[in-house]
Design a protein that fits this description.
The protein contains ten helices and 17 strands. The protein has about 325 residues and is of the alpha+beta class. It has a six-stranded mixed sheet. Strands 4-3-2-1-7 form a five-stranded mixed sheet, with helices on one face. The protein has a four-stranded antiparallel sheet with strand order 9-12-10-11. β16 and β17 form a beta hairpin. The longest helix is centred in the last third of the chain and has 17 residues.
């Protein structure tokens, strides 16, 4: 049985560079070495390269290959684990499409759309049982009249960059006085931002993947944060938030959520593995959609690996199935 050359693409151009490196280490350690020869390819703004025992080599971007000594290595598959640009927003996917190299994520169009929170919300609107928080989208060039925002939406409000899979630049605001600072913080990260009503309830995250040609919804994780909301610090600082996998939910509710998530996956034309974040409203348990992550974290403690283990699956087999199923 011949092994496949896998380019495990990590790094990227955002503050989540290190998170991506941790994801790559866990994926490389999990994949079956008898089936896959894994080469970690690191991307930053200056360089695409592969490090090995004898040094490092640059990627030939003409055909996405590397040359080690006299051996030219071409890749059968790219496993993208970059959080944010250029691996989560479709840029890398478009490049790989041109070269005809299969990969593990959503395609360029879906990756680009799901990085835009407002566009994603517009597309999933109307799915049976799915609710979205009332919101306004603001552009940097607009006039930002605090009084208009306060009149249209009910406090407390979330202010967040519209693009970007990460939690950087987010604020929670309790009155009009807090808006100017929160707007400028979000505009520091993005030229368009989302001002959204705060939904009070339990926060969950749940992986969805295409395995053996079927859409599989993984067990849910409940996120209980000691902070006011699940921001970058809560996400990446040990002990700030508690994650319970599988979440304590009635079976009927789990099935209802799985149906909604499957519909989101289909509606957005997702491929491979994604993670969908949502809130169940405090009294009614109504489902409120937050966002889709198309390259979710894969470090050993990340949510998808937790959920794969809770489903009784082997993580290496799970990643292998994503590789074998790409392009089906």
């Amino acid at each position: 049985m011949s092994t496949k050359n896998i380019a495990l693409v990590a790094g990227g151009f955002t503050g989540e560079y290190e998170v991506s490196i941790n994801s790559a280490k866990n994926i490389a350690a999990s994949l079956n070495p008898n089936k896959y020869k894994v080469y970690t390819i690191l991307l930053n703004r200056d360089r695409w390269f592969h490090e090995y025992a004898g040094g490092s080599v640059d990627v030939d971007k003409n055909d996405f290959s590397i040359t080690i000594g006299s051996e030219k290595i071409k890749f059968d598959f790219a496993f993208i684990t970059i959080h944010g640009t250029p691996g989560e927003d479709g840029k890398l996917q478009g490049y790989l499409d041109i070269l005809g190299i299969p990969y593990n994520t959503c395609d360029a169009t879906t990756s680009a759309i799901t990085m835009n929170k407002a566009y994603t919300k517009a597309l999933v609107e109307g799915i049976h049982g799915l609710h979205t928080a009332r919101s306004l989208r603001l552009f940097e060039r607009d006039m930002h009249d605090v009084a208009i925002i306060a009149a249209k939406l009910k406090f407390p409000l979330f202010i967040k960059p519209n693009n970007g899979g990460s939690s950087v630049g987010m604020s929670k605001v309790y009155n009009a006085a807090g808006l100017p600072d929160a707007l400028s913080r979000a505009f520091h990260e993005d030229r368009q931002i989302l001002v959204e009503e705060f939904i009070k309830g339990r926060e969950f995250s749940r992986g969805v993947a295409s395995l053996h040609g079927k859409i599989v919804v993984l067990p849910a994780t409940e996120i209980i944060s000691s902070k006011d909301f699940f921001d970058y610090e809560a996400k990446y600082t040990p002990g700030v938030s508690e994650e319970i996998t599988p979440a304590d939910l009635p079976e009927a509710k789990n099935e209802e959520i799985a149906e909604i998530l499957t519909e989101i996956y289909i509606r957005l034309n997702c491929k491979g593995m994604v993670r969908i974040d949502f809130i169940l409203l405090e009294e009614t348990m109504d489902f409120y959609f937050i966002e889709v992550n198309t390259t979710p974290g894969q470090s050993a403690a990340s949510l998808i690996p937790q959920q794969v283990r809770a489903a009784g699956m082997d993580l290496g087999e799970f990643y292998g199935t994503l590789i074998e199923g790409a392009g089906i």
